[in-house]
Each structure stands twice: as C-alpha cells, then as structure tokens.
C-alpha cells in the first residue's frame, strides 16, 4: 500500500477524544469517529480488526461451527424471553420518515446479543441426545444503546463481537466444555500478545444464574474494571462480586456515651456528615431501604465509606428482585423525609440486615428516622440490638481483606477482553427446547455463552502496547508487517530504487508493506508517522542506504543496515 | 466438516418460501429465515457468502481501498443531503423500551447506503488535486425498509453490499474510471460463472442525474427486472427507461364518425371499457393529470394497454418533481370525478402531452371530462387538435420497437447483480467538499458509486445454477470442493477406512471436504442430499469401493472409480 494514497493519514493532533486508544487510533488513521461510540475503520484499522477476528475464528473453529446471524429480528422473539422490556441497552428499528412508515410501519429489534435468534434455529435441527453437545458461533456486529459511549473502541454503541453458544444434555457436560473454553480463550490471548497480563476473574452471573460468570481481564491502568486479587489462593474477583472484609476500626479506651439526636438539615453525604459531627467517616452509617418482588421492605446498613452491593444483598435476602424503596415507602416506614433513615426503632415488619463493616464500633452515628436529625453515639446492645449475623453485602474497596484468609486484596485496574457465562436452562426453557434422551424422554438443555469483542480488543491492545511516540502493534495483528520509508525521493534515481524495493518485497517476497512514498514530507515527519502507526518493522531506503536498507524494530532503538535478502 | 455435526441438515420439504433460491437454500441448510427478508447464514451459506465476497474484494482491491463504515449514523448527516425525508426505505433506531429510552432517548439512522458517512471522512483527508482520483469501498450490511421482502436472498431488509465510491476532479476523469469499472465488474462475474448471461443495461439515474445509470443484469426467468434488447445496436435497456415505439394500428377503410358521449358509470379500467364499448383496447386512451413543483398542471395521454413512465415524462416536461395530481385538482380541472379525465376541452392553463402510441388512430375513445361519461369516436383535427409533436413517455411493453431503428425489442427477464451510478457533484456539493487545483482555486468534485450485493448474488447463483434435484454451485463459490459420502458405516472397518480418507483429503491434501458420516441414513438419502447441496465433486467410499473411491461431478451423471491420488 502506498502511503500517499491512503485514506487516513496521520494527524499531528486531534480535537476530541475520550481515551488513549481513541486518540492514537484516530491520529494514526486507523479509525474515524462517525459519532460517539460509532467508528469507521479506515484501511489500517480494518486490517487490524480482520487479523484479530481471524485469530479468534481459527481458535473458535476448534470448539464450534461458524454461522452468521442477522442484526434485525422480530420483536416476538424478544417477547418470548421477556427481554424486550428488560435489556436497558435494547434498540428498536422502524421507518425513519413518512414515506418509509407508509410502506411498512412494523418495528424490529436491532440485536444486542443473539440467544433469541439462535434458539429457534438450534431447535429446528438438533433435538436428539445424539446431536449433543454442540456449539455455534459467529463474528458479527452488536448494537447497544450506551448513553455516553466513552473509552474509544473499548465501549461502543456499535461494535464487533464473537459470540459462541454451547448446548449440553447435562450440567456436568456443560462444565467440561466451559473449563475447556477457558483454555481456548487463553490461546487467543496468547496469539494477541495479551496472555501474560490477562487473568480469569469471577464476575456476576447476571440475571440468569446465581453462579459466577467469568471475565478475562487484562491488566490496564485505563481499564473500566477493578480487580481484587487473593494472592494466597490465586483468585481474581471483579470488584462487583468480591467478598470483602472491612479493615477493623479500633477505639482504644473509648467509653460508650448516651445516644443523642442532632439536627443536621440537608447534611446527607457521609463525608459532609462526618465533618459536621466531627467524627471519623467510619463512625457514620449508610442506611438504605429496599423492596422485594413480594413487597417486603428491607433495611440495610453499612459503615460510612462503603456502598451497598445490591446483587450481594439480593442473594442474602434470597429474593429475585431487589429495588430501592420509593420515597413514599421510605416516608411511611421511617416517618421521616428521605435522607434521614437509620436502623433505629423501625416497624417490626421491616427486616434489618447489617454489613460486617458495622461491627466493632462504639458511639457510631445513624439516621434518626426523624426529618433533619441524625443519631449520635449509637451503641449495640443499648440503642440497637446486636444482630446474630453480620453479612457481607458492601461493594469491596481497596484496603479490604478476603474474608476467608483475612489477607488484604491486591487491587488493580483492568480491561475486559472476554467473558463466559453459564446460562443454565433458562433460554431453552423459554423456547420450550428440550432434547430426547435414549429412553425417548424429553429432558432439559443446559447452555453457556462465550464472548470476545474484536473491536474492544483492538482498543485494549492500543492501551497496552503504546509508548509516548505511538502504537507498538503485536506482530500478529499489525496492519502491515513492514513500514518502508523512502527518503530523498525527489531524486528520480532514489525514487526508482525505492519503488523497486517495494515491488521486490510485495511481489517477490509476498510481504505486507506500507510504503511511505511521499515526496514532499520531511524524514523527521515520516519517522514520527511510522512510530505513531506502530508497524513492527521499519525499513528506510535513501541516498545513504545504497544497495542495502536500514532496518529498525518499532520496539527497539537500534537501527542497522541490512541486505535485502535478510528480510522476510 | 462432518455432516452429522452440521447445524443445517437438508430438509425434504419446507413450508413457506417465496422463490426458488429461498427454497433450495433453506432446504439445503444454507440459510434459515429469521423473518421475511432477514436470513441467518448457516455454516454452508456463510462459506458461500464469504467466497463471493472474497472474489469481489480481490477485484475491487485493483481499483480502490477497503474500509469499513458503521451501520449507525447521526441524523444530522442525512439532514445535510435532505435524504432523511426522501429515502422511502430509510430505517431509524432508538431505545426499544422504557429503560433504554431513559438511558438515552436519541435517534439514529440505520444506513441503507453510505454516501453520507463517507463524505466527511473523505473531506478530512483528501482536498488537493494531487490526492485525486481515489476510490474507497467496503463490504458491509445494508438495511432497507422493504414492505414485503420477497425473492429470497435477491431482495432483503438486511443484506450484504459491496459499495465503492470514486472521487474525481473532472467529469472526464470520472468517465474514464466509470468505463474501467465495467471491466472490473465483468471480471467478478466471470469468476462467479455469470459472465455469459450478464449484460450491461441502461437504467434510471435516479434523482441524482439525468444520465443513465448502468445495471449488470443476469438473464434469469425469475429475475425481477425486464430487459429490452436492441439487437442491431447491441444495446440493453431496463424496461423502466427503454425508449419505445408502439406497434402501429391500421384501420383499413374505417371512416371518421361523429363524437358521442356514452354513459359508463364506474367503468374505468381500459380492458373493461373496451369490452363495454365493444372497441379494441388500443382505441381507448388513458389520461392522467400531474402537477409539477411549480404547481403547473400537465395532462398526459397514452393509448390503452400502456402505462405512463413518470420519469420519462418528467424529463420531457423539464421539471424537477412530477407527481400525480390530487383528486381536488383533477375535479377542478376536468369538472368531473376522478376516472373520467380526457384531453378534450381542458382549460388553456393545462399543458397537454401525447404519447406517440396515440397517433394514427381513428374513432378512439377518451374520458369525457364529465362524471360517468366517455367520449367515443374522437378524431384528431375534428375533436382534438393534432399535436405538433408526439412524445415517448410510455412504459415500454413487449412488442414495442426501438424508435431509432424501428426493430422490435428482444425482451427477457433478468436479475440485477450490480449497478454503477454517476453521482455528479451532488454529494460533494451538499457537504461543501471541493478540491484545490494547481492554481489554488476551489473546484467541484465529481463522484460515482458502484454496488454489488454479495447476498443477492448468492440468490441469483441458485436461480441460475440448479436442476430438479438441487443446486449446482460454480466451483469458486461452492461451500466445499468435495462431498465425501460414506456408505456401510455400521461396518467398523469401512467406517475407519472412510475416516482415514477424510483425514487424508483434509489434512494431507488440504482440501475442503464435507463428509457425510451419518450411520443411520440410507445411500439414497445421502445421494439426494448431496444433489440438493450441490458441491461440485462427489466421492463415495463404501464396502464396494475397496482402496479406490467413486467419483462423480455434480453436473454430470457418470460416476467412475478413481485412485485417491487422482484427487486434488
């Protein structure tokens, strides 16, 4: 490819970007932002994306068969699982103007995932125990209604996804496949140069299962996720599910004081409150009220400085849906305006749950259940019965310990590069999809789903592999293998020679070469463009290189003259 | 690939299909219909599609550079060209439920074509005369709000498209590229096995240009288009633009009779009217009233049996927009209810246009411009002034002649497999995209666009290449090269042998093989499945084939025993 002809030449600066990967990819001419979270892949970017997808395809072919599902689907499929009202990123499609609506006023779904599309197809073809297990995958666009797409290619409204679905006759069979899939995923990350910094991490199973799902997380300072690592056990948790034990607070020689209610109108955030009351933050208490799907009201308290992890709490409460109580319920139950709830003197119908971070405190604060008032010097036994059990339903924070061993977590930022989910029998049930066993009986089907986002990985690769001068692509996904730079090209002899070398490399050696053939650009500019674009091997031909070429790796500083036949 | 594991095994019959290609592709397990006009490509279909796209890609790489544009775009881009209200197939995208709308209530366009997306990108990078000409292409999904998608893969709501856009500094330069693109297109059709039956045909330039566009049309009885061929000139016209001359009607010794008005309430269609009045259809006249963008009213008449081609008429009238007059206008102008309009006694403000098919008639019929009445025995000179010019604005019909030579058209059905359009300066103008010439002056940019639909081509290939037993794929796009059929596989020795051959072919010979390894299926069923699927080369291994295999081409009837090393 001649660089002079490339749509997507390097830019010195760009105006708006939301992340390092967006900046470098746009500056280097890999992508062009069409709108927030929606990118056009220019030739360079399209080549990187294709290479990432081809690596994923080759590995997935060892465990599944490729198909290609559409982006549009009828609403009826999504009604069948109920997800039409539940997925908060769901897009629909309909005629955009009067002419179009007059032709056809129907509405369709723009698929954010493809379980609903695949179920009726699988059901058509595979229903005997002999057909199982099987696994189907595709590499296709996905669409999600992200409010503010950010992080460049790491989170988009429209993005590429490899999604694989496995089907099994038993949970045991599913688990064997699931464990094997982790190995296949690591082969992908190995080929992408990410394996050393990528870990398997427990994450939420979402609404489908109480089991964990597993995320493949690559250590990355600009990643969106926070990982909690238990060194002694070599276990990784996503912050959202990490079990946690708060650092103990010790009050030497402090005596229990009598409770008193203090007026503090509008002082609701714990930091403000601690300052106002002149107490440490950990003496404050955050109380939230929730309602279950059965209409029960739950009061939950954590020590100031923590947030409640609703998913952890839901599992403890043992309900299906847990949502924040409405202001009306809060007022009814606490007899106070929202913001002053505590665990004191609540009606008996309200079940109280306390996080373990609340334990071991003396003279702590708590909402007084009285508008504008906060109770100080609350103590267990005296003001509030000490619960039989303290739970763990807070969102883990840096500094917390892993409860089982008591060791402090190692905490780091990471970017998700893949995830795998046990789906249980849920989707098969929704589509009344069963298999017939050897005795002719209909039995339940167990499923898993397995995602990797090629466009997201492209973003993560840039976040991981760049320096102050630009991108440093891992060789297997680089848009070209060689970046040939021609200098002194206004000299027709040199120009002819440079083009001959380009032809030799591409036609005879069959190498992928980007040739910077621009005549009106300085050597410095060409070198800095090459560094920005990040192709692994740089070659320079100039007045000074004679019948050799200058060779330099993007990742090293040393350049040397080499013979052409040393290049391959 | 083991056939026993394939998602998408052959079906004896399928319930609903709209075309031969839909039936054979669904029966053969290539696709599964997700909804009308929206298909899932199963492994076999996905492989065919990929091969078609790879052929297109290789040829397009000789004349353009590949990028990948998104499916979502902001409305603002479509407002810039005004096409947001004009494209009658335009889809928009927005949150599908309350949760989603609450997160983000914005609306986007789901792209049916990509001029609007490419213009701002091209403008960013190429603006000097030195950068021109250039051409950019992609292979991507397109979405169109088709009311009733039919014809299987030949017309979908969601389909694959290769769209290339070329940019030029002058119309002359554009034309050189445009002519060259035709040759490149024919290389594609040659590789697909379609070149012999494919012709370049003049078609409507749409709203962008008064020039013709060009369609690549493959002769095909089930095609959606009708082509008019001028043999002596070797010219092809799409019916929608074919110039036409109606067969002359000769009235031997018929004398002109006095006009009379006959009551015929509700008799409006010309066939009914001819029967009612006991005259031949060609003596009836169809009159339609139109309004231009300036509010002028036009009356246009053609002989019964023809329809008016509004696009031809628009060019003759010389206006930008021509639309059927509203019922109110018809009543005002003709002083009669709709359905009884004629060219007699119209107000002077109404411009009258007559098609050449109206000429040479005696005692013809015409609406009387009087509710429920038809005028009979109308004659030029007496009842109606003979116009100075008769035009050609009818939709050509079989039997018509090419006006220039007077020869009758050869008419045939065809399926569009590609189209190329001169776009003029329209899109560049809308985006204020110009280039700077050698003198530093800003000049207009001329563009062309060039489409081929890979999924549509897959449908056309099936329409063209099938027999009563199934599909007969051209070798370059067949999903596999060899279909290996194992018989007598319940015999473990034969089974082992068959698997060894499969391994030899795939691992040693690196051939693409679909291996029918099913044990519980009869030979007859396997052969008929192989015929249905249409892989070019069939191999059979059975108790009777010994150390050889039976070889048969899908397109021939003869089978013969061959040595394994003869296969490659």
From TrEMBL, chains A, B:
**PANTHER family documented for this protein:** MITOCHONDRIAL RIBOSOME PROTEIN L39/PROLYL-TRNA LIGASE FAMILY MEMBER, PROLINE--TRNA LIGASE
UniProt cross-references to CDD domains, sorted A to Z: ProRS_anticodon_short
Subcellular localization = Cytoplasm
Q: What is this protein called?
A: Proline--tRNA ligase
Query: Which GO biological process categories is it annotated with?
Result: prolyl-tRNA aminoacylation
Record PROSITE patterns: AA_TRNA_LIGASE_II
Reactions mediated catalytically: tRNA(Pro) + L-proline + ATP = L-prolyl-tRNA(Pro) + AMP + diphosphate
Q: Which GO terms describe its molecular function?
A: aminoacyl-tRNA deacylase activity; ATP binding; proline-tRNA ligase activity
InterPro entries per record: aa-tRNA-synt_IIb (IPR002314), aa-tRNA-synth_II (IPR006195), aa-tRNA-synth_II/BPL/LPL (IPR045864), Anticodon-bd (IPR004154), Anticodon-bd_dom_sf (IPR036621), Pro-tRNA-ligase_IIa (IPR002316), Pro-tRNA-synth_IIa_bac-type (IPR004500), Pro-tRNA_synthetase (IPR050062)
- In the Enzyme Commission scheme, what number(s) does this protein have? 6.1.1.15
Keywords attached to this Swiss-Prot or TrEMBL record, sorted alphabetically, are: Aminoacyl-tRNA synthetase, ATP-binding, Cytoplasm, Ligase, Nucleotide-binding, Protein biosynthesis
């Amino acid at each position: 490819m001649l660089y002079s002809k490339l749509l997507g030449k390097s830019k010195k600066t760009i105006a708006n970007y939301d992340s390092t990967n967006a900046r470098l990819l746009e500056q280097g001419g890999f992508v062009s932002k069409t709108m927030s979270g929606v990118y056009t892949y220019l030739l360079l970017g399209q080549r990187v994306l294709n290479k990432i997808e081809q690596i994923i395809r080759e590995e997935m072919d060892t465990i599944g068969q490729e198909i290609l599902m559409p982006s549009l689907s009828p609403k009826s499929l999504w009604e069948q699982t109920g997800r039409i009202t539940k997925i908060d990123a769901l897009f629909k499609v309909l005629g955009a103007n009067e002419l179009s609506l007059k032709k056809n006023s129907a509405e369709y779904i723009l698929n954010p995932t493809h379980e609903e599309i695949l179920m009726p197809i699988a059901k058509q073809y595979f229903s005997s125990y002999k057909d199982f297990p099987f696994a189907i995958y595709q590499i296709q666009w996905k669409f999600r209604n992200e409010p503010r797409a950010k992080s460049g290619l790491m989170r988009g409204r429209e993005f590429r996804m490899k999604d694989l679905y496995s089907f099994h006759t038993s949970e045991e069979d599913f688990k064997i496949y699931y464990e094997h899939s982790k190995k296949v995923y690591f082969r992908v990350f190995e080929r992408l140069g990410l394996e050393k910094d990528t870990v398997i991490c427990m994450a939420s199973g979402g609404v489908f299962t109480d089991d964990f799902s597993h995320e493949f997380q690559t250590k990355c300072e600009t990643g969106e996720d926070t990982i909690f690592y238990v060194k002694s056990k070599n276990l990784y948790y996503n912050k959202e599910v990490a079990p946690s034990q708060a650092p103990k607070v010790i009050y030497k020689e402090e005596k229990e004081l009598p409770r008193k209610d203090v007026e503090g109108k509008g002082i609701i955030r714990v930091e403000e409150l601690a300052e106002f009351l002149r107490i440490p933050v950990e003496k404050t208490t955050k109380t939230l009220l929730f309602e279950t799907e059965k209409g029960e009201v739950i009061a939950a308290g954590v020590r100031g400085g923590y947030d409640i992890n609703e998913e952890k709490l839901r599992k403890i409460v043992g309900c299906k849906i847990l949502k924040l109580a409405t202001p009306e319920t809060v007022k009814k139950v606490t007899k106070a305006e929202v913001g002053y709830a505590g665990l004191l003197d609540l009606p008996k119908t309200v079940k109280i749950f306390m996080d373990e971070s609340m334990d071991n405190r003396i003279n702590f604060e708590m909402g007084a259940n009285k508008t504008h008032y906060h109770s100080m010097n609350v103590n267990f036994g005296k003001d509030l019965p000490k619960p039989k059990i303290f739970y763990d339903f807070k969102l883990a924070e840096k500094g917390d310990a892993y409860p089982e061993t008591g060791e402090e977590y190692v905490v780091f930022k990471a970017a998700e590069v893949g995830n795998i989910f046990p789906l249980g029998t849920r989707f098969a049930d929704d589509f009344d999809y069963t298999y017939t066993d050897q005795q002719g009986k209909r039995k339940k089907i167990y499923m898993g789903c397995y995602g990797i986002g090629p466009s997201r990985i492209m973003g993560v690769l840039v976040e991981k592999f760049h320096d102050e001068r630009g991108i440093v692509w891992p060789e297997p996904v680089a848009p070209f293998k060689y970046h040939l730079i021609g200098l002194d090209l206004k000299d027709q002899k040199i120009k002819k020679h440079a083009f001959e070398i380009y032809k030799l490399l591409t036609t005879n050696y069959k190498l992928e070469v980007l040739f910077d053939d621009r005549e009106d650009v300085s050597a410095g500019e060409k070198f800095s463009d090459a560094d920005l674009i990040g192709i692994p091997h740089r070659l320079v031909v100039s007045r000074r290189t004679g019948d050799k070429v200058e060779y330099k790796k993007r990742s090293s500083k040393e350049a040397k003259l080499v013979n052409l036949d040393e290049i391959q």
